[in-house]
Each structure stands twice: as structure tokens, then as C-alpha cells.
Design brief:
Layout lengths: L2 H14 L8 H26 L7 H15 L20 H4 L1 H24 L2 H22 L3
Bound molecules: heme C.
Heme C (HEC) binds next to helix 2, helix 5 and helix 6.
Length: 148
Amino acid sequence: MKAWRWCLLVAAFAGAGPGLAQQKPEDAIRYRQSALFLLGQHFGPLAAMVQGKMPYDRDVATRNAALAETMSKLPWDRFGPGTDKGDTKAKPGIWTNQADFKAKADRMQAEVARLAQVSKTGDFDALRVQVGETGKACKACHDEYRNK
Ligand code: HEC
């Protein structure tokens, strides 16, 4: 292969995300599950607070929402070709309805970003509303694209 072709190839992989060039499908699956697991771990306390199952604390809410926002960005480039099989609950529709899956991922990221903003204000009612909106965005995708 000519050198310039290698350059294009390397650039294409570099653009796909850090560390993706050599990633095995099982590692991509584990990576996205880990990010989604942590997303759930940081969204959980916010849901518990607005449901009165955990005392409300603005700092705890802010910290968890900020971490959830970071996690919300990580899974999506790990749904590449070959990662539909294996130890995964991802449904095949992800790869046949990519635009819709991406739209649902984008919506959720927007809701979590808003959650991070709202959590800083200390406005509990606004937080409750935004936790609800975020939860709906999680469910919309899980109902369609995640196996039980
Ligand atoms: C655009 C689709 C989509 C959105 C939006 C989404 N998820 Fe998921 N989620 C998935 C898929 C697909 C899986 C299964 C991944 C796999 O097994 O490879 C998953 C798995 C999970 C898991 C299990 C991770 C594990 O331990 O394997 C948790 C927890 C989770 N999601 C939480 C959330 C939360 C919380 C939100 C909202 C803040 C959310 N998800 C939004 C698609 C989505």
C-alpha cells in the first residue's frame, strides 16, 4: 500500500475516537457497557433524590450530574461493525436504524447536559422535572434498542 493511503487510513481511525484503531469487538462492547453502567450509577442518586429516597444535597447532585454528563458522551462510537454479536444486550435495530439510534443518543446527551446545568442552580423543582425528562430519554432508547 502506498504511504499516502496509510496516512488516510490512520487519519480515519484517529478521527473515530481515542484508542479505537486496534480495538477488538469484545473490548468495544465492554467499554460501552462500562460507560453506560457508570452513567446509571451517577443518574441513580439524582433519581433517588427527586423521589425522596435520598436526602437532597445540591453538591452531591451537581457532582453526580457532571459525571453522568461525561459518561453520556462515551458509549456511542463503540457501536461499530462487528459489535452486534457477543456478550451484549444491544438489539440488531441499532445497526439497521442508525439515524434513529443516533437521534436518541443525541437527545439523551442534551437532556443530561441540561441536568448538569439545572443541578447547579439548587432549584429542586426544576431538578425533578429534568430528571424526569432525562429518564424518558433513557427509556425511549432502551425500549427500542436494548434487550431485557
Ligand atoms: C441511544 C440509546 C440509549 C440511550 C439514550 C440510553 N441507553 Fe442505556 N443502554 C443502551 C444499550 C444499547 C445498552 C446495552 C449495551 C450492551 O449490552 O452492549 C444499554 C445499557 C445500559 C445499562 C447496562 C450497562 C451494563 O452494565 O451492561 C445501563 C445501566 C444503562 N444503559 C443506563 C442508561 C441510562 C441511565 C440512560 C439515560 C441517562 C441510558 N442508559 C440511555 C442504549 C441506550
